[in-house]
Amino acid sequence: MKKAKICTITSVKGGTGKTTFTLNLAAVLKLMKKSVLVIDLDVTAGDVAARLDLEHEKDLYNCYEDIRNHTFEQVEDYIYPYTDGIDVLPAPKDPRYANKIETGFLTYLLSKVSLKYDIILIDTNHLLSPLNLVAFDYSDSIYYVINNECMNLRAMRSMSSVFEDMESDKMVVVLNDSTKKETGQYSIADIKNLIKREVDYRIPQSFYQKKYDKYVMNGIVFLLDKKVRKSSKRAIKVYQSIAQSLLRED
């Protein structure tokens, strides 16, 4: 049976639009008739469920605890549908439980869901924690979402060196210019020089959403809104290109 492609979305600093990127990518994959599971692995501050206005009783920590206590029955008990084609496994509601989740749990969890979906998107934080490193190991690709700010680019340069030392080809860099009304001070050439590698994809500044708060408060993913899609053709092409690269056979 065909296993899901696994993609981890991360960053080197906060505030780069990583979770927004994850949800828009899930939306494009859904529009391509693919089934997607979003795992919120930002165990200390995950907000995927809140961003989608998704009510849920159980979460990632409940799943871990039930497996550990031998009360686990089926993984579907912890997964919630957002819309047809997009399911969500929420992060722990209480961040105090974050450090209790052991790495072996993620291995077990991925084995349970990998045959149920076309794509698994793991949204995580910017830390190189043991849990995140396991997600990296199981991922077909690791997307680093960056923005046009000096400290973010310097941190990305260090991370690029880490992947180079590990001889890993999983890293994909996405420059997100849509988080602000104006782009930063660096050109693409400057950014390539600063991070010592190519920028694989660029979300255009034209994708900046003036009504960001309204969409978030109503639990709407930008690219699932017809009006946004109509006015964001350049951004859609970028997301479609990313989606196609995820689905491409090895």
Order of helices and strands: EHEHHEEHEHEHEHEHHH
**CATH fold type:** Rossmann fold
Terminal-residue CA separation: 16 Å
Q: What's the CATH C level?
A: Alpha Beta
Number of domains: 1
- The main sheet orders its strands as 3-4-2-5-1-6-7-8
Class from secondary-structure proportions: alpha/beta
The count of helical stretches stands at 10
- The coarse silhouette is globular
Chain oligomer state? single chain
Average predicted confidence as pLDDT: 93
Task: Describe the fold and architecture.
The chain has 250 residues and is α/β, with parallel strands linked by helices. Helix content is 39%, strand content 16%. It has helices at residues 18-31, 48-51, 60-68, 103-113, 130-138, 150-165, 188-195, 212-217, 226-231, 233-247, and strands at 5-10, 36-40, 80-83, 86-89, 119-123, 141-146, 171-176, 201-203.
